[in-house]
Fold this sequence. Notes:
The protein is mostly helical.
Amino acid sequence: MNAYLMLSLHSQTLNNHSALELNQITDTIATKFCEHDWWDFGQGWKNLLNNLRLVIQPFIFFNLLKPWLGVFA
Length: 73
């Protein structure tokens, strides 16, 4: 999946505009993401890409460490 598709799929959720009609669960999660120290509140595509990286990185790192947890557990 390329970066443009990832940004276009997540742009509405990550921008979290007040005019956007989101359900309660999505709104709560998006609010939690915005509390991160490195969250970028800009409106450009680079800002969205950086915010998407913040959201995706913990999942990626966990999956990289998961096989090693089986070795040491």
